[in-house]
Write a structure and sequence with these properties.
Rossmann fold; 11 helices; elongated; eight-stranded mixed sheet; alpha/beta; Cytidine Deaminase, domain 2; single chain
């Protein structure tokens, strides 16, 4: 199904603009990039918003709002020049759930015909909003479009397909915690996980028990003997087997009706990273700076919420000197890993190299030293991440979106990182909501 994704801030601006005068209809226009999924459906990713002035209306009363031709000409020119889609939004007064009127039908049909010639090959949409909710559809057509609001929470603002499935008794205790709506929200998601080692394998266990049924699992590595102390579901018979395959086997054993895509590759290669475009929610369970750099770009460029996590144990002369964990949400309004000073540019450069390039690079000396890792520390970090996931998609009351765990002094701190206004990843001037219009900063080989 086609979707529209807009940030919490754009949604709030839209609400204020439309209802500043509750007695008359008003309009706003969103400009959006397109992102095509592998099934052919399209995500419209809202980048910016136009709020018309009073002089921009040729007609505005309690039942109708019409913009002057000059405004339509201006926004259609911008859409053509910058290869953007248009989302026309107007309000209906009152508290009832809105419906498109016959006047809306006639106006949209004319606009859809005009834009089909002006911007061929692009999907445009219409929204009608009241204080009772909103409804969305393809411009000039009856086909509904799902609308997602994204920020510290991922909220389905409108879904033309209502979920009437009976709740599985298996999830009764969860439903008692966050309700039927929250459980349906979890089950509807396709979750992409990058890295199926110590943290990723534990994450799969928790998500499948929550009811997630659709997974995209990506990992280039195979099970080694030293992995068996922390990779859940793996055994001696799995030595040499890809980690994502081992995780997929565990999911299918628990939930045979699950839909799983396994990618035996590294997302620093664009051909592997593109598999994540079909996901609704992402998790980063990798210790590679290069793969984290690509993953965060996908999160902001395609407006896909991502929880990145990591755990570290420091040791000296056989003694543990520090136990740390980090869980961080990457989403509109939250700082990316670059703004948080968590990515090492030199490490990103190295991770993007081929083996031949690494061999020839004079700045790479010696082999990578494996870091200490213990399953219980991984488990603590993964549980924090899963709880954050439930807060984002199911609305459980937990407002931390950037957490630091210190196991040595048994503390958990909530942090806030400031997003740089000119960041090349998470700002409007960077990759934010550009969708398919921008290539990933990944290897093309």
């Amino acid at each position: 199904m086609n979707e529209i994704t807009l940030s919490e801030s754009h949604f709030e601006l839209m609400q204020r603009a439309l209802f500043q005068d509750g007695s008359t209809e008003r309009c706003v226009i969103f400009f959006a990039s397109q992102a095509e999924k592998h099934d052919g459906s399209v995500r419209l990713l809202v980048r910016e918003m136009l709020i018309p002035d009073d002089d921009d209306y040729s007609l505005r009363d309690t039942t109708e709002a019409e913009l002057v031709p000059a405004v339509v000409a201006r926004v259609s020119k911008k859409a053509k020049t910058e290869q953007l889609s248009l989302i026309f939004v107007h309000s209906h007064p009152g508290e009832a759930f809105p419906h498109f009127s016959t006047t809306d039908d006639a106006g949209e049909a004319h606009m859809a015909t005009f834009l089909a010639h002006r911007t061929p090959g692009r999907l445009h949409a219409a929204l009608v909003v009241s204080k009772g909710g909103l409804r969305a559809r393809v411009l000039g057509a009856g086909e509904g479009i799902r609308v997602i609001g994204l920020g510290t929470q991922r909220t389905v603002l409108f879904d033309p397909i209502r979920d009437h499935r009976a709740m599985n008794a298996q999830f009764d205790r969860q439903v008692r915690a966050f309700g039927t709506q929250g459980q349906h929200a979890i089950e509807a998601l396709c979750v992409g996980i990058v890295g199926l080692g110590g943290t990723g394998s534990l994450l799969v266990e928790q998500l499948m028990h929550l009811g997630v049924k659709k997974f995209i699992l990506i990992d280039p590595d195979v099970i080694e003997l030293s992995n068996l102390n922390r990779v859940v579901g793996a055994n001696h018979g799995d030595l040499g087997v890809n980690k994502a395959k081992v995780a997929a086997r565990g999911i299918r054993t628990f939930a045979p009706d699950s839909h799983i895509t396994v990618v035996e590759g590294d997302i620093t290669h664009e051909r592997h990273a593109r598999a994540l475009f079909d996901a609704d929610f992402l998790f980063g369970c990798t210790d590679s700076h290069g793969s984290r750099a690509v993953l965060q770009q996908i999160a902001y460029q395609y407006l896909l919420p991502c929880i990145d996590m990591g755990s570290t144990i420091t040791a000296s002369r056989g003694e543990v000197t520090g136990i740390f964990g980090r869980v961080q949400l990457l989403t509109p309004g939250q700082a990316c890993l670059t703004c948080s000073s968590l990515l090492d540019p030199e490490q990103v450069r190295r991770d993007m190299m081929s083996e031949a390039e690494r061999t020839l690079d004079p700045y790479i000396v010696g082999a990578h030293e494996p870091a200490p890792a213990v399953i219980s520390i991984n488990g603590t970090v993964v549980s924090l991440a899963t709880t954050m996931f439930m807060a984002v998609v199911a609305g459980i009351p937990s407002d931390g979106r950037y957490l630091l765990y210190n196991g040595k002094n048994s503390s958990l701190r909530r942090l806030h990182a400031a997003a740089h206004p000119n960041c090349y990843i998470c700002s409007y001037r960077g990759t934010y909501a550009r969708g398919d219009a921008l290539r990933l900063y990944a290897r093309g080989d």
